[in-house]
Amino acid sequence: MFIDIHAHAYVHTYPLPDGRQAFITPEQLISRYEKSGIEAGVLLPLVSPELYLPQSVGEIIETARNSGGRLIPFCNVDPRAIGNSPDTPLEYLLRFYREQGCRGMGEVLPMMDMTDPLMLNLCRHAEAAELPIIIDITGCRGYGGYGLYDEHGLPGLELWLRKFPRLTVVGHGPGFWAEIARQPPDAPLGGYPSGRIQEEGAVPRLLRTYPNLMADLSAGSGANAIKRDPEYGIRFLEEFQDKLIFGTDVCGPNDPFRMLDYLLELRTRGKISEPAFRKIARGNAARLLGLQ
After folding, report:
1. What pLDDT digit, counting tens, does each position of 259-276 carry?
2. C-alpha to C-alpha distance for 170 and 107, rounded to whole angstroms
3. Would you place residue 64 in the very low, low, confident or very high pLDDT band (cuts 50, 70, 90)?
4. Mean pLDDT, the chain, as a whole number?
5. Dihedral angle sign, alpha carbons of residues 276, 282, 283, 288
6. Which of 25, 34, 197, 239 could, after both became Cys, cross-link 181 (CB 3.0–4.6 A)?
7. Which pLDDT band holds residue 145 (cuts at 50, 70, 90)?
8. 2-289 belongs to CATH 3.40.50.12780
């Protein structure tokens, strides 16, 4: 019924400072999928060091091969890798990973500006390699932060969408989803804004304008955007039913699947149409990934 566009797992997990397990293992993830009606999930390698211990793309590929089809590998390359230059030829590496079975790239979340020449170089080579890219926009800068940085109105993301029209970009993260509503100029970037949506923001505008933009409903940021104004959220799900993708962003073994029960509830209550539910739960992910 569901395909999870956004999952993480570590074969060799590590402890957090308080002793808790930092990341779910592949076996634990598949067990949770079986209990929740999720047929498959996309494993996103974490390669940038700002927040997590980096893992190898090879680990992700091998894990997916041993999963009986339940896990689908993405590759990932930090834009600073292999030269730390805006001229680094990354396409050969991305094509290699594609040949190894990777269906896309992400989750891309180095603490860098969207318009940094290194980021634009990564986008250029991802487009050439025909790999969709999942990004995390957080609005963070400075110590303690992670993720891509953009301004209110998402001008950096719009630059990507214009400059790389054959690159499918899947937006995600608090800096992305906060822009479902127009933000006051002095509002902090990102975060989890609450309350009714008085005026639409950059996210719906960009989804309407650019065919190469999709959106990942995972994590607290995606759930907050849809639930903060339930009436608007339902209209948003219906209007953009061809562009929205279910995801969990599971990290720890007990992280909640925030949107799963809510989508099922909306379907049961007749608040969203059956075609919209099916596309968001599975169809759009299957199309993006080239699955049946």
Report:
1. 999 999 999 999 999 999
2. 10
3. very high
4. 96
5. positive
6. 197
7. confident
8. no
User: pLDDT of 200-241, one tens digit each?
Assistant: 999 999 999 999 999 999 999 999 999 999 999 999 999 999
In the predicted model, what is the mean pLDDT of residues 64-84? 97
Residues in the chain: 292
Three-state DSSP string of the chain? CEEEEEECCCCCCCECCCCCECCCCHHHHHHHHHHHCEEEEEECCCCCCCCCCCCCHHHHHHHHHCCCCCEEECECCCCCCCCCCCCCCCHHHHHHHHHCCCCCEEEECCCCECCCHHHHHHHHHHHHCCCCEEECECCCCCCCCCCEECCCCCHHHHHHHHHCCCCCEEECCHHHHHHHECCCCCCCCCCCCCCCCCCECHHHHHHHHCCCEEEECCHHHHHHHHHCCHHHHHHHHHHCCCCEECCCCECCCCCCCCCHHHHHHHHHCCCCCHHHHHHHHHHHHHHHHCCC
Q: What are the CA-CA distances from residue 280 to residues 130, 236, 255, 258, 273 (Å)? A: 22, 12, 21, 14, 11
Kindly report the pTM of this predicted structure: 0.97
Domain boundaries, the chain: 2-289
Residues 179/187, Cβ–Cβ less than 8 Å: no
